[in-house]
Design goal:
With 289 residues, the protein is an alpha+beta fold. It is built from 6 helices and 16 strands. The chain starts with a strand and ends in a 9-residue tail after the last helix.
Protein backbone atom coordinates (compact mmCIF):
# COMPACT_ATOMS: atom_id res chain seq x y z
CA UNK A 1 0.00 0.00 0.00
CA UNK A 2 1.48 3.35 -1.09
CA UNK A 3 0.53 6.51 0.78
CA UNK A 4 0.18 9.74 -1.19
CA UNK A 5 -2.01 11.90 1.06
CA UNK A 6 -1.51 11.87 4.83
CA UNK A 7 -3.82 13.57 7.34
CA UNK A 8 -2.51 14.58 10.77
CA UNK A 9 -5.12 14.64 13.53
CA UNK A 10 -5.45 15.01 17.28
CA UNK A 11 -8.29 15.66 19.70
CA UNK A 12 -5.92 17.42 22.12
CA UNK A 13 -4.53 20.93 22.07
CA UNK A 14 -1.05 21.60 23.47
CA UNK A 15 2.31 22.97 22.38
CA UNK A 16 3.75 19.45 22.38
CA UNK A 17 1.01 18.28 20.00
CA UNK A 18 1.65 21.23 17.69
CA UNK A 19 5.42 20.63 17.71
CA UNK A 20 5.01 16.94 16.89
CA UNK A 21 2.50 17.76 14.13
CA UNK A 22 4.90 20.33 12.70
CA UNK A 23 7.73 17.78 12.65
CA UNK A 24 5.48 15.26 10.88
CA UNK A 25 4.54 17.89 8.30
CA UNK A 26 8.21 18.57 7.61
CA UNK A 27 9.04 14.86 7.21
CA UNK A 28 6.08 14.24 4.90
CA UNK A 29 6.75 17.39 2.88
CA UNK A 30 10.35 16.28 2.31
CA UNK A 31 8.99 12.93 1.08
CA UNK A 32 6.84 14.92 -1.42
CA UNK A 33 3.55 13.74 0.06
CA UNK A 34 0.40 15.81 0.29
CA UNK A 35 -0.44 16.70 3.90
CA UNK A 36 -3.79 17.60 5.47
CA UNK A 37 -4.31 18.96 8.98
CA UNK A 38 -7.33 18.06 11.05
CA UNK A 39 -9.47 20.49 13.02
CA UNK A 40 -7.80 21.81 16.15
CA UNK A 41 -4.33 22.01 14.60
CA UNK A 42 -4.63 25.58 13.35
CA UNK A 43 -1.62 26.64 15.47
CA UNK A 44 0.75 24.20 13.79
CA UNK A 45 3.63 26.12 12.20
CA UNK A 46 3.71 24.97 8.57
CA UNK A 47 3.91 26.40 5.07
CA UNK A 48 1.07 25.96 2.60
CA UNK A 49 -0.68 23.25 4.63
CA UNK A 50 -4.28 24.03 5.46
CA UNK A 51 -6.65 22.75 8.10
CA UNK A 52 -9.51 20.87 6.43
CA UNK A 53 -12.80 19.33 7.54
CA UNK A 54 -13.22 15.73 8.65
CA UNK A 55 -15.25 15.11 5.52
CA UNK A 56 -12.37 16.25 3.30
CA UNK A 57 -9.96 14.03 5.23
CA UNK A 58 -12.25 11.03 4.76
CA UNK A 59 -12.49 11.74 1.02
CA UNK A 60 -8.83 12.47 0.30
CA UNK A 61 -6.48 10.86 2.84
CA UNK A 62 -5.10 7.33 2.55
CA UNK A 63 -3.23 7.42 5.87
CA UNK A 64 -4.08 9.04 9.20
CA UNK A 65 -1.48 10.06 11.79
CA UNK A 66 -3.19 10.19 15.19
CA UNK A 67 -1.14 12.18 17.72
CA UNK A 68 -1.96 11.61 21.39
CA UNK A 69 -2.88 8.62 23.54
CA UNK A 70 -5.27 5.75 23.12
CA UNK A 71 -8.19 8.15 23.69
CA UNK A 72 -7.14 10.06 20.59
CA UNK A 73 -6.84 6.81 18.68
CA UNK A 74 -10.34 5.69 19.70
CA UNK A 75 -11.79 8.95 18.45
CA UNK A 76 -9.76 8.82 15.24
CA UNK A 77 -10.64 5.16 14.62
CA UNK A 78 -14.37 5.87 14.68
CA UNK A 79 -14.08 9.14 12.76
CA UNK A 80 -11.78 7.90 9.98
CA UNK A 81 -10.65 4.29 10.46
CA UNK A 82 -14.27 3.09 10.39
CA UNK A 83 -14.37 4.25 6.75
CA UNK A 84 -11.35 2.23 5.69
CA UNK A 85 -8.49 4.71 6.15
CA UNK A 86 -5.41 3.10 7.79
CA UNK A 87 -4.27 4.75 11.03
CA UNK A 88 -0.78 5.11 12.54
CA UNK A 89 -0.61 6.27 16.16
CA UNK A 90 2.03 8.53 17.69
CA UNK A 91 2.02 8.00 21.43
CA UNK A 92 1.98 11.02 23.75
CA UNK A 93 -0.16 9.27 26.36
CA UNK A 94 0.60 6.79 29.14
CA UNK A 95 -0.31 3.19 28.25
CA UNK A 96 -0.47 3.53 24.47
CA UNK A 97 -1.54 0.05 23.34
CA UNK A 98 -2.84 1.50 20.07
CA UNK A 99 -0.38 4.34 19.55
CA UNK A 100 3.08 2.81 19.32
CA UNK A 101 5.46 5.39 17.77
CA UNK A 102 7.20 7.47 20.44
CA UNK A 103 8.16 11.14 19.81
CA UNK A 104 11.89 10.40 19.79
CA UNK A 105 11.57 7.87 16.96
CA UNK A 106 9.16 9.74 14.67
CA UNK A 107 11.72 10.58 11.99
CA UNK A 108 12.97 7.01 11.66
CA UNK A 109 9.63 5.19 11.97
CA UNK A 110 7.54 7.57 9.87
CA UNK A 111 10.16 7.50 7.11
CA UNK A 112 10.07 3.69 7.14
CA UNK A 113 6.28 3.61 6.92
CA UNK A 114 6.19 6.07 4.03
CA UNK A 115 8.81 4.04 2.17
CA UNK A 116 6.62 0.94 2.50
CA UNK A 117 8.36 -0.76 5.42
CA UNK A 118 5.56 -1.44 7.90
CA UNK A 119 3.01 -4.03 8.98
CA UNK A 120 -0.73 -3.85 9.57
CA UNK A 121 -3.35 -5.62 11.62
CA UNK A 122 -7.12 -5.60 11.43
CA UNK A 123 -9.27 -4.74 14.46
CA UNK A 124 -13.00 -5.35 14.67
CA UNK A 125 -15.62 -2.80 15.67
CA UNK A 126 -18.73 -3.68 17.66
CA UNK A 127 -22.18 -2.29 16.91
CA UNK A 128 -25.12 -2.09 19.29
CA UNK A 129 -28.84 -1.87 18.58
CA UNK A 130 -30.88 -0.60 21.51
CA UNK A 131 -34.64 -0.75 21.94
CA UNK A 132 -36.21 2.48 20.74
CA UNK A 133 -33.06 3.76 19.00
CA UNK A 134 -32.98 3.80 15.22
CA UNK A 135 -29.25 4.55 14.97
CA UNK A 136 -26.58 1.96 15.78
CA UNK A 137 -23.77 2.94 18.10
CA UNK A 138 -20.20 1.83 17.42
CA UNK A 139 -17.29 0.90 19.71
CA UNK A 140 -13.73 -0.22 19.09
CA UNK A 141 -12.90 -1.18 22.68
CA UNK A 142 -16.07 -2.03 24.53
CA UNK A 143 -19.67 -1.49 25.49
CA UNK A 144 -20.36 -1.17 29.21
CA UNK A 145 -23.93 -1.54 30.43
CA UNK A 146 -24.36 -0.25 33.99
CA UNK A 147 -26.62 1.70 36.33
CA UNK A 148 -24.35 4.74 36.46
CA UNK A 149 -24.40 4.68 40.27
CA UNK A 150 -21.85 3.26 42.70
CA UNK A 151 -22.88 -0.06 44.32
CA UNK A 152 -26.23 -0.13 42.53
CA UNK A 153 -27.05 -3.40 40.80
CA UNK A 154 -29.05 -4.09 37.69
CA UNK A 155 -30.56 -7.43 36.65
CA UNK A 156 -30.60 -8.75 33.12
CA UNK A 157 -30.63 -11.90 30.98
CA UNK A 158 -27.68 -12.73 28.74
CA UNK A 159 -28.10 -14.57 25.43
CA UNK A 160 -25.45 -15.60 22.89
CA UNK A 161 -26.76 -16.45 19.42
CA UNK A 162 -30.29 -16.66 20.87
CA UNK A 163 -29.16 -19.27 23.43
CA UNK A 164 -29.81 -18.33 27.06
CA UNK A 165 -26.58 -18.07 29.09
CA UNK A 166 -27.69 -16.83 32.52
CA UNK A 167 -29.57 -14.19 34.47
CA UNK A 168 -27.07 -11.82 36.01
CA UNK A 169 -27.42 -9.45 38.91
CA UNK A 170 -24.41 -7.14 38.97
CA UNK A 171 -23.24 -3.55 38.77
CA UNK A 172 -23.13 -4.12 35.02
CA UNK A 173 -21.32 -5.99 32.26
CA UNK A 174 -18.48 -5.23 29.85
CA UNK A 175 -18.70 -6.55 26.28
CA UNK A 176 -15.35 -5.98 24.63
CA UNK A 177 -13.20 -6.78 21.61
CA UNK A 178 -9.63 -8.10 21.75
CA UNK A 179 -8.56 -4.45 21.32
CA UNK A 180 -10.54 -3.54 24.45
CA UNK A 181 -9.14 -6.46 26.44
CA UNK A 182 -6.23 -4.27 27.60
CA UNK A 183 -8.56 -1.42 28.59
CA UNK A 184 -11.46 -1.33 31.10
CA UNK A 185 -12.02 -5.08 30.79
CA UNK A 186 -8.53 -5.73 32.14
CA UNK A 187 -9.30 -3.65 35.23
CA UNK A 188 -12.46 -5.72 35.73
CA UNK A 189 -10.58 -9.02 35.71
CA UNK A 190 -11.13 -9.89 32.05
CA UNK A 191 -8.60 -11.84 29.97
CA UNK A 192 -5.99 -10.26 27.71
CA UNK A 193 -6.75 -11.36 24.15
CA UNK A 194 -4.09 -11.15 21.45
CA UNK A 195 -5.21 -8.69 18.73
CA UNK A 196 -4.83 -11.43 16.12
CA UNK A 197 -7.68 -13.31 17.81
CA UNK A 198 -11.01 -11.89 16.70
CA UNK A 199 -13.06 -12.62 19.78
CA UNK A 200 -15.50 -10.96 22.15
CA UNK A 201 -15.34 -11.27 25.91
CA UNK A 202 -18.10 -10.69 28.45
CA UNK A 203 -16.95 -9.48 31.86
CA UNK A 204 -19.48 -9.08 34.69
CA UNK A 205 -18.88 -6.05 36.93
CA UNK A 206 -19.11 -6.96 40.63
CA UNK A 207 -21.66 -9.77 40.14
CA UNK A 208 -23.71 -11.05 43.06
CA UNK A 209 -22.42 -14.54 42.39
CA UNK A 210 -19.04 -16.19 42.91
CA UNK A 211 -19.50 -18.28 39.76
CA UNK A 212 -20.14 -15.48 37.26
CA UNK A 213 -16.74 -15.57 35.55
CA UNK A 214 -15.72 -13.69 32.40
CA UNK A 215 -15.97 -15.76 29.23
CA UNK A 216 -14.84 -15.46 25.61
CA UNK A 217 -16.90 -16.15 22.49
CA UNK A 218 -16.43 -16.11 18.72
CA UNK A 219 -16.50 -12.60 17.26
CA UNK A 220 -19.26 -13.66 14.84
CA UNK A 221 -21.62 -14.31 17.75
CA UNK A 222 -24.51 -11.99 18.59
CA UNK A 223 -24.95 -10.96 22.24
CA UNK A 224 -28.37 -9.97 23.51
CA UNK A 225 -28.92 -8.36 26.91
CA UNK A 226 -32.51 -8.12 28.14
CA UNK A 227 -33.28 -5.81 31.08
CA UNK A 228 -36.73 -6.32 32.55
CA UNK A 229 -38.89 -3.38 33.67
CA UNK A 230 -36.12 -1.09 34.83
CA UNK A 231 -37.53 1.89 36.72
CA UNK A 232 -34.16 3.67 36.77
CA UNK A 233 -32.11 4.91 33.80
CA UNK A 234 -29.56 2.51 32.34
CA UNK A 235 -26.27 3.81 30.98
CA UNK A 236 -24.45 2.41 27.97
CA UNK A 237 -20.83 3.53 27.75
CA UNK A 238 -19.02 2.93 24.47
CA UNK A 239 -15.33 3.79 24.45
CA UNK A 240 -15.28 7.43 25.65
CA UNK A 241 -18.95 8.17 24.93
CA UNK A 242 -22.14 7.47 26.86
CA UNK A 243 -25.85 7.02 26.21
CA UNK A 244 -28.62 7.03 28.82
CA UNK A 245 -31.64 4.77 28.29
CA UNK A 246 -34.90 5.45 30.08
CA UNK A 247 -37.80 3.07 29.63
CA UNK A 248 -40.39 1.44 31.89
CA UNK A 249 -40.68 -1.42 29.43
CA UNK A 250 -38.23 -4.22 28.59
CA UNK A 251 -34.90 -2.91 27.26
CA UNK A 252 -33.06 -5.08 24.73
CA UNK A 253 -29.46 -4.37 23.73
CA UNK A 254 -28.08 -6.43 20.85
CA UNK A 255 -24.32 -6.32 20.25
CA UNK A 256 -22.54 -7.81 17.25
CA UNK A 257 -19.44 -7.43 15.12
CA UNK A 258 -19.57 -4.64 12.57
CA UNK A 259 -18.90 -5.28 8.88
CA UNK A 260 -16.28 -2.51 9.16
CA UNK A 261 -12.74 -3.07 10.41
CA UNK A 262 -9.94 -0.77 11.53
CA UNK A 263 -6.57 -1.10 9.80
CA UNK A 264 -3.78 -0.22 12.22
CA UNK A 265 -0.36 0.57 10.76
CA UNK A 266 2.69 -0.40 12.84
CA UNK A 267 6.45 -0.03 12.39
CA UNK A 268 8.10 -3.35 11.55
CA UNK A 269 9.56 -3.57 15.06
CA UNK A 270 6.11 -3.57 16.68
CA UNK A 271 5.62 -6.46 19.13
CA UNK A 272 2.39 -6.87 21.13
CA UNK A 273 4.07 -8.91 23.86
CA UNK A 274 6.85 -6.36 24.23
CA UNK A 275 4.15 -3.71 24.66
CA UNK A 276 2.58 -5.84 27.42
CA UNK A 277 5.95 -6.20 29.14
CA UNK A 278 6.60 -2.46 28.98
CA UNK A 279 3.11 -1.18 29.75
CA UNK A 280 1.87 -3.81 32.20
CA UNK A 281 5.13 -4.69 33.91
CA UNK A 282 5.15 -8.34 32.79
CA UNK A 283 8.20 -10.19 34.10
CA UNK A 284 9.18 -7.49 36.59
CA UNK A 285 10.71 -9.14 39.62
CA UNK A 286 10.27 -8.18 43.25
CA UNK A 287 13.08 -5.91 44.40
CA UNK A 288 14.53 -7.02 47.73
CA UNK A 289 16.14 -4.50 50.01
Amino acid sequence: MNFSTVAITSNKKSKKIYDIASLCCEILHNKELKVLLGKGLEKVQTKDIKVVSNKQITEKANLILAIGGDGTMLSCAKEFGYYGIPVLGINLGNLGFLTDVTPNEILERLSEVISGSYKTDQRIFLEANITGNKKKIVALNEFVIHSGSIAKMIEFDVYVDEVFVYRLKADGIIVNTSTGSTAYSLSGGGPIIHPGVHAISLVPIFPQSLSSSPFVINSNSVIKLVLQNSTDPIKVSFDSDEKIITSKETITIEISKSSKELTLVHPNNHDFFETCRNKLGWGVGIVKN
